[in-house]
Amino acid sequence: MPDMLVATSYEEDFSVECLLQELLMALVGYTGDVFVDTSSGGLNDELLEPDRCTVQLATDLNWVSPQDREALDDLVRLGFHYRQLQRFVQQEQQPCSRLSRSLYRQALCAGLAEVLAVYEDEVVLLQEQLLQQGAGRGLPGLKYQLAELQMLLPQLHQLAYDLRRRRLPVSEGGAAPAAAAAAAAPAEEGLQVPREARGAKLLCTLHSHRLNGQPLLQACLQRLLWHVNQVLFNQLTMWMVHGLLADEGNEFFIRPRDATRDSSSSSSKQEQQQDDTRPAGDSNSARQSATGAASSSKHVPNRSENETYKDWHEAFEVALHELPPGVTPHLATSVEFVGRAVRLLRAPPASAKLKQLQQSCSSFGRSARGSGTGVADDQQQLLQQQWAALEQPQQQLLPHEDTLAFAQALRMLQQQPVFSQAALERTVEAIRADVASRLWQLLVVQAGLMQHLGAVKDYLLLARGDFYQCFLADAAKLLAGPPREKTANSDLAVPWQSAAMKSTAQDDPHFKLFRLVLRPKPADHAADAPAAAAAAAAPAAAGAAAPASSGAKPLTVPSFDSNWDGMALEAQLPWPLGVLITPSHMKRYNALFQLLLRLKRVQLSLEQTWQELGRLCGRGGGGTSASDITPLLQLRQHMGHLVGNLQIYLQLDVVESNYARLQEKVAAAQDFEEAERAHDRFLQALVAQSFLGSGILGKQLSEVFGQSAALCRLVKGAREDGIDWPQVQELHAAFNTTMGSLYVNLQSKTLQQYDKAPYLRQLHLRLDFNGYIKRQNKRFLDVQRTVTTSYRQQRQQQEQEEREQGRRAKAQQGRQQGQQAAV
C-alpha cells in the first residue's frame, strides 16, 4: 500500500501490525527493542526539555523507509512527553524531607493525572481499533486521532519543565522547613534549597501559559486552574467560615505573623514564637511551626481577654507578595478581617458573669445536698438552662445558620468551572458585611461602646471638670513636692478616690475602670509623650498588646512639672472594647490626657497666683496698693488669657465638637469597620487639632508653662521676701518674646498645612479676637527691628572707625620708615 510501511524480508517475523502495537506501547511509556529510550528513565532523574526527545525508532530497523521513520519518531514523541509528565507527577507526590508539601502543586498534579488518564484512554481505544480492524488505517489514521494530543502534551511538558526549573532562594520562600534546613547546614554557604513555584506563583504561571491562541490548550489549562483553585477555595472556606489556616506549605496569603519573619532563624525559635502567638490552653492545636496552620478557636473556649485581643491584633497579617491572580489587596484585607472576626465571635473569653453563674450553680447544688430537704426541680432546671445558654456564647454571637450560609456561598463559587473575580468580591463583601454587622452589634449595643467612649472623654480628656477640680485641689500638697518612688501610685490613689466622693464621679459606674499612675520620668521632658504614653499603654490598658505603627509621628507634650509629668491613666475596659480601642489608641489618649492635665494645673496655679496678688493688694489684709504691682497683675493676666483660651479651645473646639461628630457617625453606622474608621478619625482629629505633632509649638508652650510656674513661685515668695522686680522684668521680657514667637508661628505658612490651617486660625482668633495682641506683637517687632537696625548701624560705624584708625596707623608707620631711610 502506498505511503505505508514497506515490508522486506522481515515481514514474515515482524508485521506492520506488530510495529504499530510497539508504537502504542511506547506511547504509554513502555519502550523496548523497537522503540528505544536512550535516557536512564529513573524516577529521581531531572525532567528533560521538551525538545530533547530520547525515544525514537531503533536504527537497526533498516527496512523502514525514511518517511515512515520520521512519522513514527514524530508520533513516539507523545510517549516521551507522557513519560516526563508522569515522572513529574510521581516526583511531586513523593514525600520530601527538606520541603513542606505544596497543596497547590498536588492539585496541579491531580489535574495533570486527569489529562494523562484521558490520553491513556485514547491509546487504549486505538489499540482496540487496531485489534479489531488491523493495520488498515496505518500511520495516517493514528496521526489524525492523536493530532490534538500532539499539540497538547508538548505544551504541558513545557509547563511542567518551567515549574520544575524555577528555583528560588531560601529567603524568598519564608517557610519554616526551608529555614530549618538552612540552619541545619551552616557550612554550605549559599545553599539553594529547591523552592519551585507554588501558591500564588504557581497560579500566576498557569495564567501566563493560558494566554495563548489555541482553544484546546486554553480549555486544558483552565481545567488545571480549576484544580489548583480548589485548594484556594478550601483555604478561603476554612479561614472565613471556621477561622482556621489550612496552609501546610505556607502558601496562603493570610499568614501568622511569625511565619513572615526572617527565614534564617532556627526552627526551634520559630516554634517558640508561634507558641507565644497561639492562645493559651491550645495543646491540641493543629497549628505547628512546620506547617504554619492556625489553631481552631473553638478548641479553646476559655481563652482570656488578653489572649483574644492578641489573636485579633497581632496573630495574622496579609502577605501581599503571595496574592494570587484575581485577589486585590483590598479583597485580601477583607478576607483577613472576616477570619479574625470569625475567630473572635466563635470563641469569646470566659466572662465574669459566666464564672459567677458557675459558682452559683455549684453552691446551689452543695446547699441542696447539705440540707437534705431538696429544692424545687423547676428552679434547678432554670439554673441549668441558664448555665447551658451561657456556656456556649459563640452560638449567640455567630449563629450556625450564618456559617452554613458562608460555606454554601463559597462552595458555589468553588464549583464554577471558571474563576470569577467579580463573583468572589461580591461573596466576600457579603460575608464581611454580615460579620462586621455582628461585631458592631456586639460592641455598640451589647458592650455599650458609646457609654465607654463617653467615660474615656470624661476621664482621659478631662471632660468631667468638677472631678478634676476636686482632685487637683486635694492633691495640691502632694503635687507640690517630689513623689516617693515606691508609694507614688498609692499616694495618688488617695486624692483620686477622695475627689470621686466629692464630685459627680461618685455615681459614675465607669469611674472604677480608670486608675491614675505615675510612670518613670522621661529623659527628655519636651518630648515625653511617647515614653509616658507607652508606659501608660500597658496590656491592661486595653486588654491587648497590639503593635503601634512604626511610622507614626512622635507626639510632643509640653512639660510643666518634671516630678509629676509622668502621670497617666490606665483603663480596664471590658471585653470586647479592646478590639476597637487598642493600646496604640491609648498611647495617644494618654498624650492628650497629659496635655490637658498640665494645662489644667497651670490654670489653677495662675488662679492661686491671682488670689495671692489680691492679698498683696490688701483685699485679704495687706498694705500694698494695686498700682504698685501693676506689672505683676498685667503679666498674670496675659498668661491667664493665653492658658485659659487654649484650654477653652481644646475642650470645646477640639474635644466636644469632634466627640459630637463621633456620636453621629457611630449612631449612623451599622458596621464595625465604619465605627472603627469613625473612632480612628476622631482620635486623629484630636491629635492634629491639639498640635501634639508640632515640635515648635510644643517647645513654645513648654516655655509658657515654665514661665507661668516661675511667676507663681515669685508671687508666692513675695509675702515673705518682697517682690524681686528685676526678676519680674526679666520674666516679662521672656514671656513677651515667647508670645511673639508663638503668635508668629500660629500665622506661619510653614505650619499652616492643609489639615492644620483652619485650627491654627481658630486658635489664633480665640487668642486675639480684638487684634490687641497683633498690635502689641507689631510694636514688639518694631522695637526689635529698631534695636537690630541701631545695632547694625553702630556696628558699621565701629567697623568704619576701626578701618580709619588702621589707615592712619599705616600712614604714620610709612612716614616713620621714610624718615629713618633719610637719616
From TrEMBL:
InterPro entries: GCP, GCP_C, GCP_C_sf, GCP_N. Residues 20-444 form the Gamma tubulin complex component protein N-terminal domain. Residues 282-299 have a biased composition (Polar residues). It is found in: Cytoplasm, Cytoskeleton, Microtubule organizing center. Residues 811-823 have a biased composition (Low complexity). Its main location: cytoplasm. Residues 798-807 have a biased composition (Basic and acidic residues). Pfam families: GCP_C_terminal, GCP_N_terminal. Residues 258-306, 791-823 are annotated as: Disordered. Residues 449-772 form the Gamma tubulin complex component C-terminal domain. Keywords: Cytoplasm, Cytoskeleton, Microtubule. PANTHER family: GAMMA TUBULIN COMPLEX PROTEIN, GAMMA-TUBULIN COMPLEX COMPONENT 4. Component of the gamma-tubulin ring complex (gTuRC) which mediates microtubule nucleation. Belongs to the TUBGCP family. This is Gamma-tubulin complex component. It comes from Tetradesmus obliquus.
